[in-house]
Amino acid sequence: MSTSYQIASIPGDGIGPEVVSATIQVVEKLAKTLGTFQINFTHIPWGTNYYKEHGRYLSEDALTTLRKYDAGLFGAVGDPDVPDHISLWGLLLAIRGPLQLYANVRPVRTFPGTKCPLNTATGGIDWMLVRENSEGEYSGQGGRSHVGQPWEAATEVAIFTRVGIERIIRFAFETAQSRPRKHLTVVTKSNSMRNGMVLWDEIAASVAKDFPDVTWDKMLVDAMTVRMVWKPESIDTIVGTNLHMDILSDLAAALAGSIGIAPSSNLDPTRKNPSLFEPVHGSAFDIIGKGIANPVGTFWSAAEMLTWLGEKDASAKLMQCIENVCAAGILTPDLGGSSSTQGVVDAVCSEIEKLK
Ligand code: ATP
Ligand code: MG
């Protein structure tokens, strides 16, 4: 009997439903064609429409519900009618924290059909970005006083814990160790932030001793942006805080060629909770309903999900099918092509058919 996986499908807002439904078609086709695993997607309607109806982004028993699944596939959150900090905290951050999805992992690789704007020896980049996903600058702690007065003040407290830093740095070293180049760059800002960032530096130096086969360096986040553009070949795996890697990962996705293809995994490396997989892009309301959303970021996220679930072979085959389709020039308009979302789905399904 092949393993059967139960997946929570949370399409969310904007183009989320379009890219998630595209991905379900492709993954179901893969499972059926290979016959080596089974997969069932259960639709969960959380998002801004749910909020407009119920006054909350998630159901009250959301965490208990999610824990019944092996993993979650998420589309996007964000709607022009609702301030972003309400939708983001209402949905994604309300899941990531309690489920301790503390590692956000983003492979960044130039794909066939995408154009890396950098001049690299290989014509592209191949990096792995690891973002601390549970604390730091996005702790949500702080407040405002003297509201509306000229002397109004606001604090936004970044909380860094030894446990939180150590577990993400250890995870990043393990990730770097699993890659051919085995190099890790630890990004901080310890020249101007003398508490939490210095603790990051200290813990990195200490954890590094457990990984003698991994080379590593540390870099200030501002200098890192320059290095990403000027010396992309010197980079392999990067780890940093919630805020720093939020910014660097968008930069990296753009440097790889497109935000529409970039995947992201929110992992609980202890595997006590289901991990959540989602494309890097947002709800992109400007193209909603036009049938041209690029589904590749969500396809790749689903491939990452299959790897996490233990289906490495199926994941590699899916990636090959996606790359073949991109290499054949079957691309959505954001990548300069003229294909529709469904056109890309159909082309990937035809590639999968050839795996028989
Ligand atoms: P959010 O506020 O959730 O970040 P957004 O609307 O700002 O959402 P982004 O993901 O930041 O969307 O993308 C910026 C722009 O890039 C979009 O407005 C859209 O034009 C384009 N874009 C993003 N994702 C895709 C995609 N999957 N396919 C095609 N175009 C995309
Ligand atoms: Mg955006």
Automatic annotation (TrEMBL):
Alphabetized InterPro entries for the sequence: ICDH/IPMDH, IsoPropMal-DH-like_dom, TTC_DH
Pfam families on file: Iso_dh
Lineage top rank: taxon: Eukaryota
All copies of domain Isopropylmalate dehydrogenase-like, residue ranges: 6-348
Coiled coil regions, renumbered to chain: none
Gene Ontology MF term list: NAD binding; oxidoreductase activity, acting on the CH-OH group of donors, NAD or NADP as acceptor
SMART domains attached to this UniProt entry: Iso_dh
Similarity annotation: Belongs to the isocitrate and isopropylmalate dehydrogenases family.
Listed name of the protein: Tartrate dehydrogenase
Naturally occurring in which organism (per UniProt): Penicillium frequentans
Lineage: Eukaryota, Fungi, Dikarya, Ascomycota, Pezizomycotina
